[in-house]
Design goal:
alpha/beta; Quinone Oxidoreductase, Chain A, domain 1; Rossmann fold; 6-stranded parallel beta sheet; 7-stranded mixed beta sheet; 26% strand; 2 domains; 10 helices
């Protein structure tokens, strides 16, 4: 089986940043699906995992945690899927990634692919969909059912992959969404997805919000530097409000800043359930199926903005380079391995 991995950390401009390799055929575990990979998306976690490689590996590390493909075989205890099913999912960082011809994944974290989207358009969705859904509806305790609401959600980092999904899901749930974006192209993207207003995260967010007539917000989803925005989040969150963050801190945040307002703070890491085998792992299967329905109903749209061609060493390096530039809007996608 052909795959593309990293044996050492190299910059994206190096010709050996990614290397073609051949792996043994896969054998599904009891609850595993074997999936023929038709398309993948690249995420910041891919770049972080590539950068974490120490020294030179004997066995290349296969990255990639966003897949759309076709089930080709199933384990003995699989009940949710059958061979021939079109699927999409993010997988687990405890296992080899999906930058390969075939991939193994636990059925409980897999969804049926949206029927109305191509494999490429679908591959842009899983990791960011799960992160956004869990952030909003599990960590921030917002109801996922559409309703009329005057509650306001501030999304710090609205134009990236997770922000792009969070704007759409929060709008569906009836919230007023204020997204941060610093460039014209990213502001336009956020507004197209359903943000009510945009503010510049390079400025003073408190002042930016006050210009909109907003003194405080009910919810905050921070998708950028948690330490950098900690003070301003404490300033603009309403009493008894909720904050969720996804970016690890470099130093412990001062939780005392949230005490007098009785603010709830939560982390979101979409790999938690698969990594620890939690009892509610299957919730990711269910949410991916629900979002696929929302896509097919025209309520949610793909966040794919760039397609870099087929999966190969050169294109994977290009994709990592684009992400490392810090200027991505939406998601970039590669088709499956060249035959």
């Amino acid at each position: 089986m052909k795959a593309f991995g990293v044996s050492q950390f190299l910059p994206t401009g190096h010709p050996d940043c990614f290397a073609e390799c051949f792996l043994s055929d896969l054998s599904p575990g009891q609850r595993d699906l074997q999936v023929q990979v038709r398309a993948v998306s690249v995420n910041p976690i891919d770049c972080k995992m590539r950068a974490s490689v120490q020294g030179r590996l004997i066995t290349p590390k296969i990255l990639g945690w966003d897949v759309a493909g076709v089930v080709t075989a199933v384990g003995e205890r699989v009940t949710l899927f059958k061979p021939g099913d079109d699927v999409y999912y993010a997988g687990s960082i405890a296992r080899q990634g999906c930058n390969s011809e075939y991939h193994l994944v636990d059925e409980r974290i897999v969804g049926h692919k949206p029927r109305s989207l191509s494999f490429e358009e679908s591959a842009a969705l899983p990791l960011t969909t799960i992160t956004a859904w869990e952030s909003l509806f599990e960590r921030l305790n917002i109801s996922p059912e559409p309703r009329s609401s005057d509650a306001t959600l501030l999304i710090i980092g609205g134009a990236g992959g997770v922000g792009s999904m969070a704007i759409q899901l929060a709008k569906y749930a009836g919230l007023r969404v204020i997204a941060t974006a610093s460039r014209d192209v990213s502001r336009q993207w956020c507004m197209q997805l359903g943000a009510s207003r945009c503010v510049n995260h390079h400025g003073d967010l408190r002042v930016e919000l006050e210009r909109l007539g907003v003194s405080a917000v009910d919810y905050i989803l921070c998708l950028n530097d948690t330490n950098h925005y900690w003070q301003v989040m404490a300033d603009v969150i309403k009493p008894q409000g909720n904050i969720c963050a996804v970016v690890s801190t470099k130093e412990p945040p001062d939780l005392n800043l949230l005490k007098n307002k009785s603010v709830t703070f939560a982390w979101e890491f979409m790999f938690t359930k698969a990594l620890h085998g939690t009892d509610d792992m299957v919730s990711q299967h269910r949410l991916l199926n629900r979002v696929a329905q929302l896509v097919d109903q025209g309520i949610v749209k793909t966040t794919m903005t760039e397609h870099l061609g087929a999966m190969n060493a050169v294109n994977l390096a290009k994709a990592h380079g684009r992400l490392e530039s810090g200027k991505m809007v939406g998601k970039l996608v590669l088709s499956g391995v060249e035959s």
